[in-house]
Amino acid sequence: MTADTPGWETVVGLEVHCELRTATKLFCGCPNRFGQEPNTQICPVCTGQPGSLPVLNRMAVEMAMRIGLALHCRIEPSIFHRKNYFYPDMPKDYQVSQYDQPINIDGWLELPSGGRIGIERAHLEEDTGKITHVGGAGRIHDASHSLIDYNRAGVPLVEIVSRPDIRSAAQARDYVAELRSILVATGASDGKMEEGSLRVDANVSVRPRGSTEFGTRAEIKNVNSLRSLVRAIEYEAARQIGVLSDGGRVTLETRHWDEAGGRTTSGRTKEQSEDYRYFPEPDLVPVAPDAAWLGRVEAAMPVLPAARRSRLAQATGAPGEDIAVLVETGLDELVLAAVAAGADARTAVNRATNEVAGALETGTPPPPATFARLVKMETEGALTATQAKTVLADMLRDGGEPEELARQRGFEALASDALADAVSAVIEANPAEWERFKAGEAKVAGFFVGQVMKATRGNADGGAVTAELRRRAGI
Amino acid sequence: MTPPAPGSGSAAGARPGRSAVETADAVRAGRLTAAAVLEEHLAAIEARESELHAFNLVLADRARAEAAAVDESVAAGRDPGRLAGVTVALKDNLCTRGVETTCSSRILEGWKPPYDATVVTRLRQEGAVVVGKTNLDEFAMGSSTENSAFGPTRNPHDPTRVPGGSSGGSAAAVAAGFAGLALGSDTGGSIRQPAALCGVVGLKPTYGLVSRYGLIAFASSLDQIGPFAGTVADAALLLEVIAGHDAMDSTSLDAPAPSLLEGLDGGVEGLRIGVVSELMDGVEPAAAAAVEAAAHALSAAGAKVDRVSVPAAVYGLSAYYLIAPAEASSNLARYDGVRYGLRSEGPGGSADVAAMFAATRAAGFGDEVKRRIMLGTYALSAGYYDAYYGQAQRVRTLIIRDFDAAYRSFDILLSPTTPGPAFELDAKTSDPMAMYLSDVCTIPTNLAGHPAVTVPWWPEGSGLPLGIQVLAPALGEAVMLRAAAALEAAAP
Ligand SMILES: [Zn+2]
């Protein structure tokens, strides 16, 4: 069986936990910082010392509001509840979370490919600490002991719960990718799935195509990348179709994605799931953002990815994939500024999509005006495409001005006279090949371009050489 | 204003005749040293602590250092603060940095908090000398201080009797002269009931007036820290010091600390005082008679006294025993053996973390704490929440509504603090319901979030004190204390 077995439809709802990029934790003043020495970012509050009390971080509320606005949610007066269960990574043995009165409800997200996915809620809650099992194979049952790091305990999270509107693994991936762009754009998240700052649980069920009822779902946990998300949903949908096709029934349960094994395995069933004994958190007061606060947050909202994509498409006419890459990497601003400074849109998009985006991990993008000058040098023929790429690589690595870098490299694009001379000399030296070219053997063009390049030590433009050859051959 | 006289035949006796207000004035003026004040209290402790067991921990050396620092300040011409040289005993559920804080529970034995409660910081800023940590019913759950894992406290006026609870150690410490003042916590009467049974003043402030930061939680929506004192003026002074907004407590009211000492002797001329009918029913005749006598005295002093009904108050006890255990079941979950306090692996030293949780909690909590955790867990369970916790919260709303109605016609209300005087040790330990009834008059105030204070009242010919409870609307501490001072002056 596969997920796209005819006659079956996959139904997915996603729960995305987003760690907020606040300076401090949700209920105390400890730094919200990843990758520090264990148990160095802690205090009486986030370790649940007796007598300590939570005080809500206003910035976390503001980021949650930004997320709500970006997802077209209603922002409501909200309260916190306690979710009671015993687990050693949770210092108070309850989690403070929003339950039946969350801050954001009833929104939607528009996929880049079109279509809306409903958002049920996006609520605030605190993160737990992190347990490391030591000894054995690092699994809980054969570990000799466990270590707990509370640095993450109390880090603010927003949990974004979609409606079960997603109909394929690919659509789930697109949803998470778009959501990630939105979260990064609002400044609420760094969007790093690998570091766990964005964590996805997928509720997957299947049903006969045409059915309006939902099938029994399984909740897939431990999905750490977009690739795993796609694999996990496809695996799970296929598994459920197999079970149902064989006349069995799907169990309501939590399943863990096993990345190495490429499968999901059964966790605890929801029938035996705990009673969390939710009740309103008496140590906190309701959060009811007033109109003035909401207005300030609204006014400070950045332009969101969907709007940025259409703005860039309008300004450049570039294809959808390039637009998506540029917005995703935040290079749309660079391209827009370069175009505004008179650079050719098509060339600016190409250089930004290929060279700049490819070097984001290691290099620093140039200032827009500098980038615009480089693009102009290329479009005006002062640099060949190859030379422009080399100069841009220098700029990304070391900074600097394109004119100066081109001079240092000895790049001076040949003036058309010099180009014509070089082409004449090569034709003269290779009469047999010239005859073949004139006879229509197009691939010989490559030979001539190579020869001209050699003669000019790379200072000629390949396109210009080919054009000159065709002009002389009359073809 | 006269300090309340110890009852005839009372064994208390050792309490210095000097009030905290007088002590602080004398120390600030250099007429008396903090060291001398402390030694008087340490001598009283030396004489009777082994009999009464008011303290879990006496901090003699630290207190001597603190007193010396106060005296040095005075010598250097600096003002040590409003509580200069006044000794204060702290209920052992208030966190003190580096000093063992146990809640009188095995599960926290040996735990030293990494921080000071806000009230402790404020005491130190005003020159108070912390003399020790007082005994309590485990996690403040009880009305006799017999639920302490470290043994009961006895009533200084009759050591065969309980001091009340849960803040029995603090009440006994003030009554026995072990400290000039004390702090306790009041969730359903845990300050007022022991204060009444020990013949001292005890005050539960408006919810949110005093920061709870550093008070080890029993029931968060009800808990409030408040003073024990020998006089109404001393209670007012201590409340002035500890009250006021604290950024560390989200439920702390954003109001300035009230000015309470000023106008304390303003009298009750024209004040409308209501005696709460529902809280007079079912108490011992002596307790009802004391309230009648108190009402008569206030009337003679110019107040307009009448009866008033607060109908929903009769449901207070039932609502309380759902809300408080529910919150407690969650608040006490953190004592799991992972981060601090007791850890028990159980028989055979199981490697399973759930077994460790269970073994730790089975070994660390006493019976009453376990009983309330079970009650509360049940009340919050899926399917029962609405019938129990939800219903109790609705009752709470009704109680607030009925008090509001009463306060439209009256400035303050009056009732007995307890159904009767101190009972003998073990008299109620086998009957939880009988014990719970000790707080029937005090609980409604906690549910409403209002302030109340108990003033000692010694019936003629009795060797045991009673308390008259003065209740006021939210933030009505000033008028409440004015009436309390008038009662104190009129008391037999
Ligand atoms: Zn912290």
Task: Write a concise synopsis of the structure shown.
Chain A is built from 15 helices and 14 strands. By secondary structure, chain A is of the alpha+beta class. In chain A, strand 5 and strand 6 (116-126) form a beta hairpin.
Written description of the protein model:
Chain A has 475 residues and is α+β, with helices and mostly antiparallel strands. Chain A is 39% helix and 19% strand. In chain A, strands 2-5-6-9-1-10-11-12-13 form a nine-stranded mixed β-sheet. Chain A starts with 7 loop residues before the first strand and ends with a helix. By secondary structure, chain B is α/β, with parallel strands linked by helices. Among the domains of chain B are: 20-266 and 476-490, Amidase signature (AS) enzymes (Alpha-Beta Complex); 314-393, no CATH class. Chain B has 15 helices and eleven strands. Chain B is globular. Mean pLDDT of chain B is 95; it is low at 1-14. At the A-B interface, loops of A face helix 9 and helix 10 of B. Zinc ion binds at residues 25, 28, 30, 42-43, 45-46, 154 of chain A.
